[in-house]
Amino acid sequence: MTEKSMKNKTENKAPNKNNNLDNKDAKEEEQVILTPWKLVKRKFKKNKVAVTGMIIFIIMVLLALLAPVLTPYDPYAMDFSQVNQAPSKTHLLGTDELGRDYLTRILYGGRVSMKVGLFAVIIEILIGALVGGLAGYYGGWVDNLLMRIVEIFMAFPFLPIAITISAVIGPEVAPEKRMYIMMFIIGLLSWGGLARMIRGQILSLREQEFIQAAKALGIRDSRIIWKHLIPNTLGYIIVSATLGMAGAIMSEAGLSFLGLGVTPPVPTWGNLVQNARDIYVLKNRVWLWLPPGVAIFFAVMSINLFGDGLRDAIDPKSK
Amino acid sequence: MGNLLEVQDLKTYFYTDDGVVKAVDGVNFSVEAGKTIGIVGESGCGKSITAMSILRLIPDPPGRIVSGKIMFNGEDLTKVSDEQIRHIRGNDISMIFQEPMTSLNPVFTVGFQIMEALMLHQNLDESEAKNKAIEMLKLVGIPRAEKIVDEYPHQLSGGMRQRVMIAMAVSCQPKLLIADEPTTALDVTIQAQILELMNDLKSKLNTSIMLITHDLGVVAEMSDHVVVMYSGKIVEDAPVDELFKNPRHPYTIGLMNSIPSLIEEGKRLESISGSVPNPLYLPKGCYFHPRCKFATDECRKGQPSLREIAPGHKVSCFRAEEVTK
Amino acid sequence: MSEVILEAQNLKKYFPIYKGAFRRRVGDVKAVDGVSLYIKEGETLGLVGESGCGKSTTGRTILRLLDATEGTVTYKGQDVLNASKDEMKKLRREMQIVFQDPYSSLNPRMTVSEIVGESLVEHGIYKKGKELDDYVVEVITKCGLAKYHINRYPHEFSGGQRQRIGIARALALNPSFIVADEPVSALDVSIQSQVINLLNDLQHERKISYLFISHDLGVVKYISHRIGVMYLGTLVELADKKSLFDNPKHPYTQALLSAIPVPDPTKKINRIILKGDIPSPANPPSGCKFHTRCMYAKDICKEQAPEFRNLGGEHFVACHFAK
Amino acid sequence: MLKYILRRLLHMIPVILIISIVIFGIVKMAPGDPVGTNLDPKATAEQRAAERARLGLDKPLPVQYWNWLTRSVKGDFGDSYIYKKPVSDVVPNFIWNSFLLNIVDFILAFLISIPIGIICAVKQYSKTDNFWTVFSIIGISMPSFFFGLLLIYIFSVKLNAFPINGMVTPGKNAAGWAHIKDVMHHIFLPALVLVIGSMASLVRYTRTSMLEVINQDYIRTARSKGLSEKVVIYKHAFRNALIPIMTIIGFWIPGLFSGAVILETTFVWPGIGNVMMDAISARDYNLIMALNMFFALLTLLGNLLADIGYALVDPRIKVE
Amino acid sequence: GCGDKNEAPAGTEGEGKVEEKEASNNPARSRDGAADTLVVGTHEAKGDFLPGYSSEVYDSYVADLVFDGLFGNDKEGNPTPSVAKDWEISEDHKTYTFHLRDDVKYTDGETLTAEDVKFTYEFLADPTYDGPRSSYAMNLVGYKEYNEGDAKELAGVKVIDDYTVAFEFQEALATNIWDCGMGILPKHIYDFEKGDTASLKQKMSDPIGSGPYILKKFEPKQYVEFEANPNYFLGAPKVSHLIMKFTTVETQMSELEKGTIDVQLRVPPKTENKEIIDGTGFININEYPDNGYSYMGWNLRDPRLADKRVRQALTYGFNRQQFVDVYYGGNAQVCNVPVSQVSWAYTTDINEYPYDPDKAIALLEEAGWKPGADGIREKDGMKLSFVWDTYTDSKYVESLIPMLKADWEKIGVKVEPNLMEFGALSEKVYDKQEFDMYNMAWSLSIDPDAFELFHSSMAVPGGFNAVGFINEENDKLLEAGRKEFDQNKRAEIYQEWCQLMNEELPYMFLTQNLSWDAINERVQNFDTSPFQDWTSRDVLLNVELAQ
Ligand SMILES: Nc1ncnc2c1ncn2[C@@H]1O[C@H](COP(=O)(O)OP(=O)(O)OP(=O)(O)O)[C@@H](O)[C@H]1O
Ligand SMILES: Nc1ncnc2c1ncn2[C@@H]1O[C@H](COP(=O)(O)OP(=O)(O)OP(=O)(O)O)[C@@H](O)[C@H]1O
Ligand SMILES: [Mg+2]
Ligand SMILES: [Mg+2]
Ligand code: NI
């Protein structure tokens, strides 16, 4: 057999995949140079599901952000001539018992829900990264002490404690401000896992030879932390942040559904779904609970998909 | 022919998202009964994949044996049923892997892991198998075998684990033992112990050994015949003495010249410039030409095929005759 | 010969082992347990030994990347282990390290120019800018890389190229002493020689001293002037290369040398096969640490640790019976 | 092993103490006076003060904490304001109802999810795998209350196939099989929500850890011995995949009970989650503290169980 | 009265017989054992089933089914004989002597005697008693001595013979008689050492009394099951099995529809609920006005609200009718006085305060409140900007908030709701008395006396006059009202008082609700009315299940 026929044969076996073999030869120098972030981006882009997740999420964020432009109604404006309207041209998702346009409330509710999710995660990350970073970098008794604290935080049963705290500090607070309370409760209760992860990350990074090399070169500690440690944990932090945000949105929705989260009249998806606890509404006014529920579902799912894709893209182990 | 195993034009490709990796690309060689064949080459040149193709252990997807024959005992292993190949694995052909630390299942005792193959292939019952396992452990020189048999891999040192791997591999007295870099992860003094053991077993059990390594020293010491691989192809194939005395492929020569212990004191090491090509972007023509001092236009265009230049000595190079140490 | 630039005396490094919730210290890993050596200007001291015997720890303790438990290190007359922060920063320019793993030793999020140039900025030798870039280019070309590599990230290089970046990083500060911690063991043979040649060339050009750590005796033999053999945290033999290879005095050295497979099928050597495994450094044997595997061991070996003696001609051995 | 468990239990004590301080602190931060809600509205200020004194509410916080702690250790968590009974009498009534729901979930989820997870890992990217991957992502992203409402809407309101709330038909007083059927009829929807939620995460988790294990060297070793694929997967791979799955059990057990707060509220299931909500809205301090301690203890116990599980399945973990 | 959330209006009074409708698809009829079992849906009872401990009305139902008091009351709210055949009141209106029937037996066979009555009141006066009914004993002679001192007996309750008992009060008040009506506990079962109510509390969830029903089973959070007492002294009830099933506002409608309950008490009077009920075709509504009202209390100590004109302006400025229309779908009434329209003390001769923003603005202007830069009215550096403390988890509040905010904004008044849990609100309002305004509701007792709520002596921390209403005329009228024993004269006094309150507006009166009991057509004679709830013997003993 000649070489040529051999090649043809292989091409037949995998026709569409290896036709680049012959014309794209050997010149590694000509390959596109990719920064690590670009590599992640490329890997991520290949993941169709994750990209879909990201797009859905971006759309939802845009819908929430552009709410004032998208809807002519005010989420708090009552119109008693339009009470409990079914979906129609003027009110795409109907109105509630006070004649407020429901689509508008869902859009604004998304703003609150996502804001709570976002800031809860920011709090979670700030504390988690700080604690994990300190524990990992300094080790010794600092690590020991901080990890004990983390252990205790991780032993807190999330929902009951969140409910308790919410009930305890909530009452003094106006509905508009309750969402800040929510952010803190969710953020404060959920940083433990992240701190642990970052600590592990830093511990293993600290043992990596490039950190040793930096020390050998006489690089300052602060620079080692900023230039060498943090950029290398950033990927994981971003992944945790996305997945954490999905969790936080879910927690907020749960608490608000129980009436212990953000309270009306401030709309959030969670307290909008609460409408359906009344069987009449559940049965006869589907538009009052289905859309906000679906919104939560889509938000959480899109973030989960996005976060999973991101993790796969960042994780060097995955192909 | 006394050939126990004959690999003919074996091609194993990996279909990845980035393209096709021709990990093994038309490999021909044979193993004689009772002899040791050494396979050397740089990391990623396809040694392990060749070995795993023989036992059909290629992860599929993404890998696939695209073509070729693997004749063993008159049967083509690429064609036999899954049931048949399972019967051959561990029984007629067994394998020792590179990493003794990760190749044993951490949750089972080493004894059990040896017994498993025995109970499967030799129809021994549990107590018989256990006795046999202890016997095998003693054979590979493990002290206190009666006790070790009930221990878990993590309780053993690297050398001990590799011995266990060997005991497991030889327990059914295979006709062919494939050893994929069995000592790379071990220290010199331990490596010496293992090599000694393998030689010992070979003479006792009369198995053929296919020894994969990148250490020319180990090859020189252990093998009867050597195959040199580069980028999924065989570049040179010769009896061991012949190869070391009279290497003909520029790659083999370069390899030998870059080993410090083969170099005269104070002399500069010769090195092969450049690095192993990315299997996704293989050069046109002879895969070695970008690093080859002897490359001509011919090498850049066409791929040389493996040809016999002396009895038993095959080289895949257009200019083999002109090339010398 | 030339003068001694670095000397370590009775260097010890113990890693404490903690256990339980209250992290009680239950023992120590005696990674380095009384090592004494010196290195002369422009000389390569090879350090061999089996995995876990403390080679890397010795190297890092000398550079004060780890805090020594005991002992002294003097570099050009200066006490390294007790140097102040500022003094240490100056010393860092003199003493550098090259690592084994070409993958984990480079920060994946920094370009070559950042990796190589970082220390120059930190030490105030150059400011960021054209001059720095020129210098970095100079260094990397010296190490066999090209100018266009300067803005690439480590993952775009092969193992050998990465190792060159690592060397360039160490070289940028123009040090006179480099600890090379297994710089070639992760590389394929054909690449190995490129790096060894580079290290050799640099030494001749700049009179750099190396502490060259490896477990490949062939490489050590090729590159070193003198060789130390370590076993379980202690040096068992230290001698001139020729003297060590031709006339090994310690039974461990003898076994080690005989264990190396020689890439020559015609030479069949008579092996000394050691029995057993290396004991754990957390629980080393009493007396002579090698006695558990030594074929010549006598009662005294179990009880008394042998002295690290000079048998003459700078050939040091730690064995009761060596002559 | 016993010693190990004992030691772990001992280690839990300081953690529990700190958690108890935190919980006590949180609850005591609460405005509202339990005395106010319980006494006759016409009670005089002195009567209120006397009642406060009787309950020990006039003492400084550390003293109150100490008293609460010492009594709690003896199993006396004080009286519930809602039920006007010792908390220790109230809680057991409901724990079993929650437990029933959770045990159904636990058994079903485990029985179904693990095999599915394994199959998905073995046949990665197959149709089955894709189906369950989609199922998982949906299950994980679906808030339990919303899913519960959907089920109620479809099955109870529209199809009238299942009751919307409660656990038994009152007054039926059925015994034996009829009773079981009655309970099963009621438990179906809430259990479905729980099971699907648990399955979603468990399938995913099993799949991931199986995938990780399947690519390990020792699996290749097992295959090279000629073992059948079934033995390789279910014996060699699964035993190893079980190790990370143990962690999820640790999170799961407490998660089950505390997650039930939302679910039980949605389905008006007479369990402790429901009681927790009542306790919160009635400011039933003693009950809130006891329940929180119960949940915290469950969390710790879950961790302990996970660790014991680890020790059981992973011989690398030294038990002494 | 006591602080009560709004969703659960208290009530009694019948609108007449349930219409007889025949519906073939009535699922309640085909329920297992439906023939002799009545299932009444109520809010959850917690298990405090002893008369002295049941703090919520749902627990009281159980206590009322199991225990008997000395007397009951008729539809008009007048006491009627029960365990007591008759009674006489002393000249000075301080001593009430009751003659007991001798045929009242507890369900364990023992006879009810005067000792049991005495025991019941000593229990309420016990120093360790921590239930919500101590006020029943508080006005009796010797209460202090027994409760705080070491008196062996409660002097105010005298056993004259086995079947005669006398109550002696410290003060002569028209309301005293109601204090004598506590459900009677059998001493032989509940007896305890003075100072040890704990032992009695243990028996709280399995009560034994003399009432028409015997408690069979209590499943917490699920239901309470009863069986008729065949030996009941007023005759055995006609329905032999009774179940109180716990429902929630969310689920009750569906349960009614599905026939899993026959009766649902206190269905919120909303159009949606009416729609469902009418939709079934087999459920009727028994509608009657609630004996209570909801209101917004404002802190009269606050100089801004101390001005009557401001209070009136705020009342004019809120469209209460619209709120009634939107929230209740018209099934409630705007109220303007602190007395229920079912009471004999009610009067219609009052200012209605219809929604009139112009008038509100005029009043505010008159009072000197001028719009500020931000549109909020201000005067002397003060702004008409209030924090309104209210409670969470209530649709009522959720609807009220936006409407009130919007209406008041139009007259230049800002209000910020501050939601808190109900217990916290109570503490803030009654104990701390720190608030601008708050909203709550009262459910009233049969007697219109509101001394506790509005007398100036109650404007102390912990007192119910939390708004700090201090008005001499008011005090005079309230004192006169409770000391007057002539019904007509009392009515006059209270009507005058109503007008005063209507003018002064110590509260912004919001609504008086309707009570709806939803009743399956198969249940007959379930004739609840404002003063007679379903446990009232007149109602209960006549309820029948149609076959
Ligand atoms: N699962 C896989 N997917 C894609 N490519 C693979 C896979 N496994 C192996 N390869 C590629 O196949 C080629 C040959 O690999 P192989 O493991 O045979 O090398 P080797 O000669 O054994 O190297 P080493 O000395 O490092 O063990 C390599 O280029 C590798 O990248
Ligand atoms: N940070 C550490 N903490 C605890 N023990 C350590 C630490 N670093 C090294 N050791 C232990 O010290 C001993 C010596 O380690 P070292 O890395 O110096 O060995 P080595 O000779 O370089 O081995 P190798 O050839 O594998 O690189 C080993 O037993 C190791 O486990
Ligand atoms: Mg390999
Ligand atoms: Mg090392
Ligand atoms: Ni051909």
Describe the structure using short key phrases:
heteropentamer; A: 319 residues; mainly alpha; MetI-like fold; 71% helix; elongated; disordered N terminus; D: 320 residues; 0% strand; globular; binds adenosine-5'-triphosphate; binds magnesium ion; binds nickel (II) ion
Please state the average pLDDT score of chain B.
85
Strand content of chain A: under 5%
**What does the overall shape of chain B look like?**
globular
Give the CATH level 1 class of chain A. Mainly Alpha
Question: Uncertain segments of chain A of ≥5 residues (pLDDT<50)?
Answer: 1-32
H/E element sequence of chain B: EEEHEEHEHHHHEHEHEEHHHEE
Secondary-structure-based class of chain A equals: mainly alpha
Shape by Cα distribution of chain A: elongated
Structure summary:
With 323 residues, chain C is of the alpha/beta class.
Describe, in plain words, how this protein is organized in 3D.
- The complex is a heteropentamer of chains A (319), B (325), C (323), D (320) and E (547).
- By secondary structure, chain A is mainly alpha-helical.
- Chain A contains 15 helices and no strands.
- Chain A has one domain: MetI-like (MetI-like fold).
- Chain C has 323 residues and is α/β, with parallel strands linked by helices.
- Chain C has one domain: P-loop containing nucleotide triphosphate hydrolases (Rossmann fold, 3-Layer(aba) Sandwich), CATH 3.40.50.300.
- In chain C, 31% of the residues lie in helices and 24% in strands.
- Chain C has an 8-stranded mixed sheet with strand order 6-7-8-3-9-10-12-11, sandwiched between helices.
- The longest helix of chain C has 18 residues.
- Chain D is mostly helical and 320 residues long.
- The longest helix of chain D has 39 residues.
- With 547 residues, chain E is an alpha+beta fold.
- Chain E is 28% helix and 22% strand.
- In chain E, α10 runs antiparallel to α12 and α16 runs antiparallel to α17.
- Chain E is globular, with a radius of gyration of 24 Å.
- The two termini of chain E are 40 Å apart.
- Chains in contact: A-B, A-C, A-D, A-E, B-C, B-D, D-E.
- Chains B and D meet through α2 and α3 of B and α9 and α10 of D.
- Bound molecules: adenosine-5'-triphosphate (2 copies), magnesium ion (2 copies) and nickel (II) ion.
- One adenosine-5'-triphosphate binds next to β1, β2 and α1 of chain B.
